[in-house]
Amino acid sequence: MGSIDRADWHYGGVYPSSLPKEGGGTHIGMYLTWIIMNDLIGTVHTENSASAILEVKNRKISGRDFLFEYCDGKFWNEDLTVEGQDFTLKYYLDPINDKKPYGQYIIDYEKTLASCLPSLYEVKDNWSNYDKISAVIDERFRNYKLLNSDVGGLSDNKKNNSKQMRLLSLVKDWWKRM
């Protein structure tokens, strides 16, 4: 997977000239905050940036601050645990269409935080906005976990397995519609 997203990819083109360059990293920082809060941050950071991770968890710095101060504005595969990489591939990126750079995350981000703004780059980097998008990512992650669980291994009871398979089918249908 390598490079997932970079703030500097967003500075040109439709990026509003009136905004500071950090606005190109807000969407990345919000996601990175969620990654940190859910202990999906990679060992490169748990070993080298442990105090900064605690600052994010204690809401003393934002994920965007972390992105620019500890990741040079770049979000890499190595910034994540194995589970974080898999979830990110399926949610932040588009695992089906590699020509499309973003997956469901950016749609959720725009719908949740930027629907009334001129561009997604104008979303304020604050904890209130993080709390809103975090609730959406939490729901996506719960569905991801359900979709990636060993449904057949959850119970030897065929009746329960049948219910679990129906539930899994419903969740897959819901995920596709979102």
TrEMBL record:
It holds the Pfam family DUF7832. InterPro entries: DUF7832 (IPR057154). Residues 4-123 form the DUF7832 domain. This is DUF7832 domain-containing protein.
